[in-house]
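User: Assemble these into one structure.

Assistant: Restating your components, then the assembled model:
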Amino acid sequence: MADATARSPNEADSAPYYVELRRLNFFYGEKQAIYDVSLGVPKNRVLALIGPSGCGKSTLIKAVNRISELTPGTRTEGDILVGGESILAANVNTIELRQRVGMVFQKPNPFPKSIYENVAYGLRIHGVRDKATLDGVVEWALRHSALWDEVKDRLKASALDLSGGQQQRLCIARALAVQPDVLLMDEPCSALDPIATGKIEDLIQTLREDYTILIVTHNMQQAARVSDHTALMWMGKLIEHNRTEEVFTNPREKITEDYITGRSG
Amino acid sequence: MAARGLRESAEFRATSAALRARLRRPVSLFFRLKERVIEWFLLACGMLSAIAVALIFFFLFKEGIVALRMVPLSQFISTLSDVTKYDPVEDVTTVVGQQRDFIWQPVSETPKFSVVPLMWGSFGIALISAFISTLCGVGIGIYLSEIATRRTRDIIKPMLEVLVGIPTVVIGFFMLAVIAEPIRALASGGVFSWLHIPFYNRSLNMFVGALGVSFVIIPVIASLVDDALRAVPNDLRAASLAVGATRWQTTWRVTLPAAVSGVFAALILGFGRALGETMIVMMCAGNAPVIHLNPFEPVRTMTASIASEMGAAQYGGLHAHVLFLVGALLVTMTFLLNVVVEIVINKYRKRIRL
Amino acid sequence: MLFRQVVGLLVVMLALLASSHAQSKSTIAISGSDTMLALTQKLAEDYMKANPDVQISVTGGGSGRGIADTSEGLVEIAQSSRQMSQKEIQAAKDNGYDPQEHVAALDAIAVAVHKDNPLKEVSLAQLRAIYTGAVKKWNEIDPSLPARDIVLYSREANCGTYDFFKEHVLRKGDFAKNTSYLAATAAIVNTVGMDKNAIGFGGVAYFVHGQNLRVLAVREIKGKPAILPVTADGKHVDYDVVQKGIYPISRPLQYYTREAAAGEVKSFLDWIKGPEGQKIVGEMDYIPLPAAAK
Ligand SMILES: Nc1ncnc2c1ncn2[C@@H]1O[C@H](COP(=O)(O)OP(=O)(O)O)[C@@H](O)[C@H]1O
Ligand SMILES: [Mg+2]
């Protein structure tokens, strides 16, 4: 099996990692879900996490904004750094952390509120009240998530009236509104049709200019299209981590080859 | 490979054929009949409850309207009643005149049927207990769904169910015998002089009645609110937490609004239950048909009047008809209340499209 | 499966029906006054012990209920703490009955206040003033009493005590609107014992067991002495003043039958009026009939 320390992607610009996992172990009670994973992604790069269901991709991605610890009985070992600082340290405020590390979920999950209020939500809970700021940020976030033109005339309409793809972009806008610099995306397109998926993929291409992105996907073409680096997980372990082209054209591990060619998983 | 082998084996084919024959056999008459009978039975049950409700309405109104024909409408609001005066020198009490007042005194030389004090009592009790039990019930519901660990939940939830199951007469008795007087003593400054509530003079009063009723409603509301909150997908909570909301912000701004129709349904049910509660208010609310702005004075509810007077009221007599009218009034008001709240909720629901 | 269960159930039900028919006891149903409920139940119990082939069922509901039940033929006997009204007699006659009265015991209505209240006696006029709302504070009765609101307690309108009090004390006037109506005399006894400002009334037998309260002596009219219906220590009923009719608020307790009593009903009523029944009446803290009436 692959050795425990992750191989750094042999990238020319071997830039320092912006998000980095160091020997991460994660437990649901007695059950271990992540085994000694070390892995990272440089600033303004997209890391795709691939692997069969249940291999621990969601667990791993949720550890980065510490949403995972809301499940009772979980335990994290090792370290996670964002921007060079440990986020597992005792003095870390999860509220600030989650502002810096936004998340988009597998199923679009807009709040049962208006489109406007969905995007403004993150600002409101942090005490932003003046209308001008809210209006400005809502428009900015919606433009950034490529939704503005479709909804600008009905900001007061219920978010639940949007189509699935629009809802997912709204969720991205909601995450962007609180000005994160990392975006976690857990299979953001798995509930969407191909056209909506295409739109989200295009969006990711533009978002990478401003954000560091970790994306979980089951779709190999998607990983190939949107990511700079790809990491393959298998039963809680990191099998291979490399530049995306390398992983897909020249996998080092047999497991990887089998997985991406569809012979397993 | 193995599967293909199995499919080809003679044994498999035989079993498969037999099974196929059995499954594709026409459905037996008995079986179809049974389905039918079950359907009819369920239909009959549904019809029966609808008919029962219709009958209750019809009967209440039919009997109640008679009272309207026997007594002028204004008499249900206020009537003239005797004013007496005591002469301490002669030691006699005499009637000195009459005044218009809201009097409920159905057993009397000239029966007096002002429903105003009874409505005051019913709504006063219902509002106060709705207030108390909304606070506590929603609080407990939130605690159960959003905060409690599984183990605490597993202890508290069954306890609430037991509380719902306690006969109201037991709660009434408990309030009457154990709670009412200590509260009065406390409120009147017996123990803590700073806690002196100036108008708390009587141990059995509207507030104590409402408190007793709350014991019944709190667990109902708590249980329903817990269910409503738990029906909210975890994804929504996660989404809120993921933009940096605290747990409380998440509950207050996302989870509760998402569960709003369920929560409202719980509150309406609670209010209706409070309006209809009989035994507890009969025992603890002091049972005096008087209008008093002070919530620590006794009241008599519509339900308590019906329950305690129906026994003595001769069927077919004026008193009985008036009690039916009071019942009809109660049912109508509950019904209207439900309709209004339903409309409001629907509006809200449309706005947030739940 | 289902069919067999249904058949089984039917068989069991038939068997039960048959067995209940097999024991043919003669039954007497009694309903009415709640004041008399305990008494009648005790009487019935002892009577059934002596006469195992008689089945007596006793329920309450108030005198009015019992009388109505009797005139509708639902029960054999009504227990009533008041006499039948003209209307009720007419209602029975309209149904073709001729109701008969059987006085079984005497009852006296005691009036009581909390033991911290210095009041010792009241006149009927004062009671009327208090209960019709003419007098609202204790010091209006007697300046030495506290200047606090009088808290009024009564039984519900469905009981004989209410009617009796209203007729004899209030002279058919209405109760003050802030009167609290309680469902049982025991509740009045308890509440008066808890509430320093309270006044309540009810069957005297209940008040001899009450705590923290004082039974008041009652004066009929100015110039007459105030009569206490209990012994000086408040622990026992004073039979004498009630039997002699000296105590102003006393009344007979009676049973009504819809016709002249006959058969088992008659033997039961005779037994009540006899020494055994009257002994129980005394044991239950009611007042036995004067010897002459036995
Ligand atoms: N809340 C949980 N409690 C216990 N085990 C869990 C929980 N969530 C996930 N797991 C387990 O952790 C492992 C990884 O799950 P997950 O991270 O969801 O996988 P993936 O997202 O790659 O499909 C699985 O074996 C799963 O059963
Ligand atoms: Mg997953």
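DSSP finds ten helices and ten strands in chain A.
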